[in-house]
């Protein structure tokens, strides 16, 4: 089961009785500059435009939820507390931009390189959909009207398997996997900021189509 870190309250309360749309975000290489096995606060660096993208998505009514593979825990490079400290730092930095992440989920496992209880074939490691499905259950998310944004093939696979619309960003490892045959039909954006613009544009068009359908009935 995915490790869930939701100890950081969102900017406004989430009503679980209401069905929500969400944008699921990979962390490293999507929100922040890719640094292998990042866990130190002092090494964290936003990709330019990422805080603004998160704010624009939340302002449009999307939940913004981070889902990340953190096998560095299972490999013994750092512990779960270090990840939580880093996530708290991200929230503090985002608060300066008037926004926040609604929830963080991370998978600490690795099927081959994990140690002890972390060496398992789990449901939560992307490209499996486990973290997205858990978030959907806990926050009443309409996965069919939600998005998964990331820079790796595993992010795209997780989104597709969960029933979300996947978007590949060309930051992090994105540029190196953009030509993979499995994702030729997947939308590709320069960075998270451009991805947010795409999502908001598609959302606006979908709303216009829905209104047109209602008015013609």
Structure at a glance:
The protein has 217 residues and is α/β, with parallel strands linked by helices. 36% of the residues lie in helices and 14% in strands.
Write up what this structure looks like.
With 217 residues, this protein is an alpha/beta fold. It has one domain (3-216): HAD superfamily/HAD-like (Rossmann fold), CATH 3.40.50.1000. It is 36% helix and 14% strand. The chain has seven helices and seven strands; from the N terminus they run ββαβααβαβαβαβα. It has helices at 50-59, 71-74, 80-95, 130-139, 153-162, 174-177, 192-216, and strands at 3-5, 22-25, 63-69, 103-107, 147-150, 165-169, 187-189. The protein has a seven-stranded mixed sheet, sandwiched between helices. Strand 5, helix 5 and strand 6 form a beta-alpha-beta unit. Helix 1 (50-59) packs parallel to helix 7 (192-216). The longest helix is centred in the C-terminal third of the chain and has 25 residues, at 192-216. The relative contact order is 0.19.
Topology:
Blueprint: E1 3-5, E2 22-25, H1 50-59, E3 63-69, H2 71-74, H3 80-95, E4 103-107, H4 130-139, E5 147-150, H5 153-162, E6 165-169, H6 174-177, E7 187-189, H7 192-216
Parallel strand pairs: 2-3, 2-5, 3-4, 5-6, 6-7
Antiparallel strand pairs: 1-4
Helix pairs in contact: 1-7
Give the overall average pLDDT. Answer: 90
How much strand content do the residues show? 5-15%
Number of strands: 7
Give the CA-CA distance, first to last residue: 45 Å
Number of domains: 1
Tell me which oligomeric state these chains represent. Answer: single chain
Broad CATH class = Alpha Beta
Write the H/E string, N to C: EEHEHHEHEHEHEH
Share in helix: 25-40%
**Uncertain regions spanning at least 5 consecutive residues:** 1-11, 211-216
| Helix-and-strand structural type | alpha/beta
**What would you give as the CATH superfamily?**
HAD superfamily/HAD-like
Look up the CATH topology. Rossmann fold
Biggest β-sheet: count, sense, barrel?
7 strands, mixed
* CA-based shape: globular
